[in-house]
Amino acid sequence: MTTDISEMQLKQVEDAEIVCRLISSPLGYNEVTGVSPDSFRLFRKNESYISVERLSVIPIESIIAGGENIRKWFADGESFWGAALLSVRRIRKNPHLDVVPKASPTHPSHAGIEMLLDSGVLYKSCVGEPTPHEILILQLYLSSIVDQVVEK
Fold it and tell me: How many CA atoms are closer than 13 Å to the CA of 132, on its beta-carbon side?
């Protein structure tokens, strides 16, 4: 089923919005440490953003229901746990992070968190290469600003 993408979904993601990152367990989330920086890892070839959903476009219940369909996570043995909610304003407090719309007719709530290297270049994952230290720090920052976690 496809839907028309409204003008709102294509325009810039506003600071006042909340975005949702689907997370896995046991490496992405556990009861002791909470949301892991690994939840914000880029793990597909040439991936250049962390997929998130815009709560201004789709309700959390629908996001959680969609998470049940994810079969491949960043590590073997991971399974869907729930969602981490983050404020776009808090994400953007770090000058190396931005949230941009990534909507499509089949995925109107899709957005992406982009990460810039210290050089100002957009980070793109390279499978098999180690994640740069500056990106690991951004992943840690994102895990530290999670406002709420919602278990499936």
Answer: 14
- Taking the C-alpha atoms of residue 150 and residue 152, their distance in angstroms, rounded to an integer, is 6
The answer to whether the bond into 130 is cis (omega within 30° of 0) is no
Q: Is the dihedral of CA 63, 75, 96, 147 positive or negative?
A: positive
Q: How many residues does the chain have?
A: 152
Tokens of 139: 């992943």
Q: Where are the alpha helices (DSSP H) in the chain?
A: 7-10, 60-67, 88-92, 133-144
Q: What is the pLDDT of residues 76-86, one digit of tens each?
A: 888 899 999 99
Whole-angstrom distance, CA of residue 110 vs CA of residue 58: 9
3-class DSSP assignment, residue 133: helix
In angstroms, the Cα distances linking 133 to 48, 136, 140 are 16, 5, 11
Vertex 76 angle, CA 30 and 107, to 5°: 80
Q: Kind and range of the H or E element at 89?
A: helix 88-92
Phi, psi of 46 (to 5 degrees): 60, 20
73-110 pLDDT, tens digit each: 777 888 899 999 999 999 999 999 999 999 988 889 99
Structure tokens, 141: 């920052």
**Under a CB-based contact definition with an 8 Å cutoff, are residues 139 and 96 in contact?**
no
